[in-house]
Write a structure and sequence with these properties.
13 helices; 307 residues; mainly alpha
């Protein structure tokens, strides 16, 4: 018994450390995504998105077969109720992917990073509205500060940050719906891409017939389009591995690595505008996130340990 207990004690930190590595890999990849999408230049976002869906499906189906989970997808396809939900999540995910590519390739990387800073707080609001989750005063203040940050952006710059809001809302809704659908992450992702793939394939075929598609125009472009599936799928697999090994509170802190890297790229590499209005907006949202995260950790520490 003593030996078994010692083995479990030493194994647990190893599992946690592996989880941190997977999480850092996933969030770093998402944070560095602008570097990849910039290679497509003026290519229409809808075309890049279509190839992203198709080649992600090819890559994921290959992994699914290797894991011998293809039977789970077949069973899932026989459930109309869950398929209806997954069709909705597939549309949300596709919109999120497409808007992100559009934002990066139109020189708005800073705004896309704002969207992923706001995203966790939108998820909180969805939990309050639909799951009747309660917020204490500190968390209410965090939501108010984030809202003031967005209002400041609109007021000072005279424009609604629609890319940031669309990214935040679409991904928050996606996460909310996936939370309430009893489907394994990998199986669900494959099914989502499978459901949206016919539209993507039809668009690629249409562009090919008209001679305006970019697949096959050069080796470099063809490899980039195919690679879109790999760079999309790998971070999702790393994230799934991290989620199995780490508590949600740890994942919650690490997730800010992605928009932080995006913001750094936008300001220092692509020299996008970062005005005093941006500073106030980001400052309010960072303060909101710090308050919310700190409060969540302090509440977690006060809970009685389970026996």
């Amino acid at each position: 018994m003593i030996q078994k207990q010692s083995h479990e004690t030493t194994a647990s930190p190893l599992i946690a450390n592996a989880g941190v590595v997977y999480a850092v890999l996933a969030y770093s990849a998402w944070g560095l995504f602008p570097l990849y999408w910039k290679f497509f230049g003026a290519l229409p976002a809808i075309e890049v998105l279509s190839h992203r869906v198709i080649w992600s499906l090819v890559f994921l189906v290959g992994l699914l077969v290797l894991r011998q989970q293809n039977a789970e997808v077949v069973r899932l396809l026989r459930s109309p109720h869950r398929i209806a939900f997954l069709l909705l999540t597939a549309l949300l995910l596709s919109c999120n992917w497409g808007i992100y590519i559009y934002g990066v390739n139109t020189g708005r990387v800073v705004e896309t990073s704002l969207g992923y800073f706001i995203n966790p707080l939108i998820s909180v609001l969805l939990g309050v509205v639909f799951l009747r989750e309660r917020l204490n005063r500190v968390k209410q203040l965090a939501v108010v500060l984030a809202t003031l940050g967005v209002i400041n952006f609109v007021w000072q710059l005279g424009t609604v940050p629609w890319i940031a809001l669309a990214l935040a809302v679409s991904f928050a809704l996606y996460g909310f719906l996936r939370k309430i659908i009893p489907v394994a992450p990998m199986v669900g992702l494959v099914t989502e891409t499978l459901l949206i793939a016919p539209v993507a394939l039809a668009l690629i075929g249409y562009w090919a017939v008209r001679g305006v598609g970019h697949l096959g125009t050069s080796w470099s472009m063809t490899l980039l389009l195919i690679g879109a599936g790999v760079v999309t799928s790998l971070p999702l697999l790393w994230f799934n591995n991290a989620a199995k090994r780490l508590p949600l509170s740890t994942l919650g802190f690490l997730q800010y690595l992605a928009p932080s890297l995006q913001l750094t790229l936008g300001v220092f590499l692509y020299h996008e505008r970062f005005t005093p209005a941006h500073s106030i907006t980001f400052g309010l949202i960072w303060l909101a996130l710090a308050l919310y995260s700190t409060n969540s950790f302090s509440q977690r520490g006060k809970r009685p340990a389970s026996v």
